[in-house]
Prior knowledge:
The protein is α/β, with parallel strands linked by helices. It has two domains: 181 residues, CBS-domain, CATH 3.10.580.10; 147 residues, CBS-domain, CATH 3.10.580.10. The chain contains 23 helices and twelve strands. The strands form four sheets. A three-stranded mixed beta sheet has the order 1-2-3. Strands 4-5-6 form a three-stranded mixed beta sheet. It has a three-stranded mixed beta sheet with strand order 7-8-9.
Amino acid sequence: MAENEEVDKKIRSTVSSCEAYFDKVQSRKNLPKSLQETLNSAFAGIPVSSFPQVPGGRVIEIPAETPVSEAVKILSDSKILSAPVINTDHESSLDWRDRYLGIIDYSSIILWVLESAELAAIALSATSATAAGVGAGAVGALGVAALGVTGPVAAAGLAAAAVGAAVAGGVAADRGMGKDAPTAADKLGKDFYEVILQEEPFKSTTVRTILKSFRWAPFLPVSTESSMLSVMLLLSKYRLRNVPVIKAGEPDIKNYITQSAVVQGLEGCKGRDWFDHISALPIADLGLPFMSPSEVISIESEELILEAFKRMRDNNIGGLPVIEGPNKKIVGNISMRDIRYLLLQPEVFSNFRHLTVKSFATKIATAGEEYGLAIPAITCRPDSTLGSVINSLASRSVHRVYVAAGEENELYGVITLRDVISCFVSEPPNYFENCLGFSVKEMLNR
């Protein structure tokens, strides 16, 4: 009963947050009612089946039993940020509820890495004789002192067994390590990395395991007969980053529509009267940016990269502007996708507890094509047009553009993919109940 009440409370909070955001957008963008109704009608008349396919025409799917480290490599090699997870117990099912467990992305992986790293540090600081007894105490220390969380580690099965197995053979004791977890992790260097990704039980941690505890967003597919208005509302008001497309009676996902793909689609509408009208407006006329400078979550360049990832996790956001000085000069950008540098480069991971944001950015800037290129901070000015912002988002394949003011590029705001999509749509009354057959509450509970 208590668990159900907690779920209901979380759903109400999520719905309330979505409603508040979208109400704010609608009140500030000031589009004529007739134009908004015309846009809604147009998007409602576009079937999802007509939307361009993902590159290569095939949606990348990851089996639930894939090790986390391998999943990271798949995402990185495929140049994607997320992928649907197949339930290998029901792989042949035609019902998406049975066939798919959810979506794995860098956000979920960051949560697992942060917690597993702290737990491994505790394990490595113990002797083999006492390791098995650390168990709950380690998790407790992790929750209070390190990350401020308590439940997911136990749920992920990384508690006492992890501590005992990680120090098999008394690795830390043999090296004369003390029982201070951070000190032990720092001194062990690459051995620390090996414990996280190459030793049991961390090595065998699967996508299925972390998906249960670190699920970032609901898995909600739409049918090929659905409209693009439905997809755009899910990607804007209801904050989904991607929407899988399915066809009734067929097992595979037919398409995978992301916020980025929709904004790129909008960019392709240049020359159409409705798009040219809206895109020519200064962002201020549409109420952008929707957050005040004080509301934008940022990170100082000399703060630890660990703090940057924790800040993204705590605020459920995908990126941060890197700033310097009292005027918050924008000097860089850190995003969720950058977690791959920690997991694919042992020399970076082994020292990540001491890396500043600035040092981390320097390291990934020289990582080479094998790991992809770091994405710098893309900016616009307060008097820029919406069209120029859309062009920056689409052409640079970024998820946010920072609004910079003054001669020193002072942080004034941020415009995200979600914000841009929200400028083009509004939600008709009871739309999801009427068109998709279930309420928002039921959707978020899936």
